[in-house]
Amino acid sequence: MTSVEYLGSYRLTQSDDYFKLGRDSVLLARFATLRKGWSVCDLGCGVGSLLLLLSQREEELDRVGIELNPGAAALARQNLADNGLAGEILPGDLRDRTLLAGDRFHLVVSNPPYFRAGSGKSGGQARMDDTCSVTDLCQAAGRLARTGGRFALVYRPERLAELFAALAAARLEPKRMQLLAYDRRKPPYAVLVEAVKDGGPGLEVLPVHYQMEP
Predict the structure, then answer these.
(1) Is 93 exposed, middle or buried (0-12, 13-18, 19+ CB in 10 A)?
(2) Mean pLDDT of the chain
(3) 40 Cβ partners below 8 Å, 6+ apart?
(4) pTM higher than 0.85
């Protein structure tokens, strides 16, 4: 079954068969550094939600999405077309180095599967990283980003050490970080991180973003 959600002036068609838009993607789209005319790639783009959210901030973008599920990729392509937005949605595995030339993008983004496979955590199969490890994800982002380009993603706080190690191995230096929490009485449930390819050391830690104030 399909449903429609409106993101400002954009119309997002979703399906019960694929992962739906959540608060994480909305916050990631607001968090990522973005400039007019930038080339942007969404790794694991699903039905194209992040590309539409980023286009709300800046419509003049060179948009590319990579999605493993061909049905979700087709719906992402439809969502761009329905909103009059140019872009390319590539059905395939982000680990496939033949999909796209490297050193191309100003910004790479991803709301990836971030629970370790077999961990028993919630979120369903779409949130398990057995088909896309953090190492795979960071290697793809590091290859696709140009020097000085950025990689912004949402991840789990308890896996930050693992994430930072994978970023370093891909020549991506963490530069900005923000923890996300439901309210001040609960520990953070997610973290936003933005890294720069071949960037110098220095990490800015932003205030915790609370979805609800006590």
Answers:
(1) middle
(2) 92
(3) 34, 51, 54, 61, 62, 63, 64, 105, 106, 107, 108, 109
(4) yes
Residue 204's beta-bridge partner residues? 176
User: At residue 14, does pLDDT exceed 60?
Assistant: yes
Helix (H, G, I), strand (E, B) or coil at 81: helix
Q: Chain-centre distance of CA 175, in angstroms?
A: 16
| CA proximity to 172, closest of 199, 133, 191, 135 | 199
Torsional sign, CA 95, 100, 106, 110: negative
Residue 177, pLDDT > 90, answer yes
> What's the pLDDT band for 131 if we cut at 50, 70, 90?
low
Pairing of strands 62-67, 39-43: parallel
Give the ranges where the chain is alpha helix by DSSP (H). Answer: 23-31, 49-57, 70-82, 134-144, 160-169
Cα angle 64-66-72, degrees, rounded to a multiple of 5: 110
Q: In this structure, what DSSP letter does residue 213 have?
A: -
Per the structure block, which two tokens stand in for 92?
Answer: 């395939």
DSSP states along 118-176? TS--SS-GGGBTTSS-HHHHHHHHHHHEEEEEEEEEEE-GGGHHHHHHHHHHTTEEEEE
Cα 83–Cα 87–Cα 91 angle in degrees, nearest 5: 110
Measuring CA to CA, which residue among 144, 132, 191, 203 is closest to residue 171? 144
Question: Whole-angstrom Cα distance, residue 100 to residue 102?
Answer: 6
